[in-house]
Write a structure and sequence with these properties.
With 254 residues, the chain is an alpha/beta fold. The chain contains 9 helices and 13 strands.
Length: 254
Amino acid sequence: MKAIILAAGRGSRMGDETADKPKCLAKLVDRSLLSWQISALKDAGLDDVVVVGGYRKDMLVDSGCEVLVNERWEQTNMVQSLFCAGSYLMNEDCIVSYADIVYHPKIIESIKQAKGDIVISYDRLWEKLWRLRFEDPLSDAETFKVDDDGLLTEIGQTPRSVDDIQGQYMGLLKFTPAGWAGVDAITQTMSSEDLDKLDMTALLNKVLMVQGRIETVGVDGRWCEADNVNDLQLYQQQLVAVGDSPWIHDWRWE
């Protein structure tokens, strides 16, 4: 199984932090986001890690990973970066990770063990993390619903209340070759302009409509999303403030 990290963007909401480096190299607890990810993936048994770069791709060479390039990163969304790794996705099971998250290896292990052709993880304790980051947690949250069998039924819509959110999608996915073939078939019907604009949750919604089967893995914390410098600072403060009691979203604790 291979891991693919989608790291083409600059992350403009990081401001000066990414003025001269890609978002995945922003520092959190004295290590880059990319370094945390590579360690977690390797601790979960994924030694073969590929990074899809774009902005300041030259700075990814020292990561120790194979680097693919989305040359059109400024004009496209993350789905096009994912397609840059299509030759791997069509031939072997792959774990796919956004570049602006950190997570515990056990989350990766749970996704690896899931049986579905397309699998995504979600955080059941999302509200604790979102209330730390936002005055109104619904301002940045999206709907997420699963049925009794753990199959995804809704994702990416605007929630009316927290009852519309059983968890938050984390930016971690698994595709088998069969799952990727289904994605490829769906996107073959789209224009190049629409494909350039396609984001990941919109893609997942298309899969739901056409194929109707995306499996989910629910987790309880132990991950973070770093969308801006304020997130980085909040997490640093939280890790110091908890003292001997582990913070539920600390991705490092056993």
